[in-house]
Structures are given as structure tokens and as C-alpha cells.
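Researcher: Structure prediction, please.
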Amino acid sequence: MAAAEAAPGENLKINGQRLWDSLMEMAKIGPGIAGGNNRQTLTDDDAKGRALFQKWCEAEGLSMGLDQMGNMFARREGTDPDALPVYVGSHLDTQPTGGKYDGVLGVLGGLEIIRTLNQLGIKTKHPIVVTNWTNEEGTRYAPPMLASGVFAGIHTQDWAYELADAEGKTFGDELKRIGWRGDEEVGARKMHAFFELHIEQGPILEAEDVDIGVVTHGQGLRWIECKVTGKESHTGSTPMPMRKNAGRGLAQITELVHEIAMAHQPNAVGAIGHIDVYPNSRNIIPGQVVFTIDFRSHVLDVLNAMVSRVEAEAPRLCAALGVDFESKVVGSFDPPAFDEGCVAAVRNAAERLGYSHRDIVSGAGHDACWINKVAPTSMIMCPCVDGLSHNEAEEITPEWAEKGANVLFHAVVDTAEIVA
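Model: Predicted structure follows.
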């Protein structure tokens, strides 16, 4: 591959052991039951993770900003007071059975940039701001990337505040309860650029033995909440021809979703994840099934075509079974194309450092997908073992983390401009 043009500080690298130690220290907060983490958004453990991050930031001389969605912004000043900041970060919240790296690597990788710059006494023209976005995972409060979505104007703050979890506790109340509701207007900040480091959450980089994924696009997403309604009746005494089994509707739509995704390869995926069966008893035929279809593609026409086919065919399948079908889209974002200049900064950094790399499409949604609507944005990915994520067995190597953070360092610092 062609060598990139040399840049100031091209031989600089972050402290990989220090980054790894920070990851392991953060993982002690909200431990899971199988080696991962359960640090869901706006829980007491989320508050503890935020406090540790703030402590580390203040130790590096950073000033902490906090907006009304709880987004944290740790700022290192630049030499030009009029220069817009370069933002870097991800999220500290996890899935209920999450890993130690999803999101956290991007936040602490950003902090490691600051630690390295401070250690070496390097100044940049543009300020650098390390960010922790609230509720990226969307498990406790759907949809995902909630606070970055409010920041980008996708959602309103009032709407987000009224979202309730399974216990009826609202986002706004819980944000206030844990003490991380700031006064700053959400979305008021202007960015020179935004970079996010993340584990791939897929198997491509590891399978191809590639160090760095240069993310050119994100996948668009459609979540379709479906309800199939039949009739509850006894499994032993109801004749087969007289049954209105909502479970059969689920089964046929499951196959339909798979068929639709396979018909749009290689640019599409689809599955049914969340399923609630009612009344969920061993000897009662399901009277209702509520489930969510997750379709993703980085091609907008493909994404819309998949949704249209479900909406056209699922009602017919259910009608043939004597059950009713309803659906609504409950989560949606169009596929983003990341900024060419930021993508080039990532690619050039990987080449300058001598790391193998390839262009890649993000299979998951990230805060960068929303921020891309309001600022030049790109992402960096490192491999993860077996492509496993959203699982307590999620794992990466210290070397993968270090290489990803080194590329992040150079992309961010080049964009922020070293002052000689």
C-alpha cells in the first residue's frame, strides 16, 4: 500500500498498557455475572462509571461540560480560542449482559489521547473534547443512541424525558435522580469534527487478520414492532383445525424475515430478536405474540424495500392462519455516509503507522451515525474475538485496542493540528 505523507508526530503512540488498565478498572463498575458488564444507562452503576471518568479527566486538567441529556464533554484547550473543537468519544453504558469494550474503548481511547498529549507536552490548535454520550445502547430506554439523537435534532428532549423503562421510571426522572442532568442546552455545541473508535461487533476484521477497519458508511436501521393476535385455548382439547395460534404467525414471519434479508445480499441483514409470547404457559396456545424485526442495510433503497415486503406479505401469511397482524416502525435511521475528509484522516493514520486496514461498513448503529448529521464524522474499528458483542464473552486483545487507539490518536491530532 502507498505510504501516507509524513505528519508532525507521526512516530507518536499512546500507552497501550495504560489504556488497557483503564478498561479493566472501568469494568469493575457494574460487573456482569459471566465476566462482562451490566452498567445500564441511568443506573447507580452508570453514575459510578461517569464519576470515575470525570475523576480521570480532571486529573488531566480537563474541564467537564454536562448537558441536559447527561452527555459529558471533557475539554482540553487548544492554542486558538476561536478554533472549533475536535470531538472524540463513544459511550460508557452497556447492555444488561454486555462486554467490557463496546463503547468504553471509544471513550477511554479518547482519554488516552489526552494523557499522551499531556505526557509529551504537545499542544494543538483546536481544542479536543472527549465525550460520553448517554444511553447509546437503548436497552432500558429505546431507541438506541438517544442522547446523541437529541443532540443532532433527531428527537426532542421533552419526548426523550418521557420515555419509561419496564418499571415505569422515566428517563428524565432517572437522569435527575443519579445526579447527571446538566444545565447546558443540548446540541448547542459546534464541532470541527467527530471521531469514534469502536470494536467491530462483527467477524470480518479478525477473519481477514486486518488491524483496522476504516468505516466509510453506517448501516441504516428499521425496527418493526409486530403483533400477531390469535385466540388463547387449551393445547390438549382444542382440535388442530380450530386453532388460532399466534405462534404460527411468528414462525412464518421469522422465515419471511430471513428470506427477505437473503434476497438482498450482500448489503442486508435481518432477524427477529425481542419476543413476548402471551400468556406464555405450557398448556395454552399463544393468543398473542409481540416481537421486533431488525432490518439493516447501508443502501437506503434496500432498507425500504425490505420493510415494504414485510408490510405486504406478513398480513397475508397471518390471514391464512386465521390470526391478525399489526405492525409499526419503532426505530429508524437512514444509512449515513461518513465525511470523506475524516475517513481519509483515519486511512492515512493507519497507513502511516504501518497497520493493515480495509474499508468497512458498520453493521451496528453508533452515536457517530447521528453526529454525522451535524458535523464531519468518521469511525475506526478494531477486531473483536469471533465477532461477538452484546455478550459478556465479548473480547479483544490489548494489541487490537492499542492499534485502534493509535489510529484514533493520529486522526484526531492531525485534525486538531499540532502546534510546533
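Model: The chain has twelve helices and 16 strands.
Researcher: Thanks, that helps.
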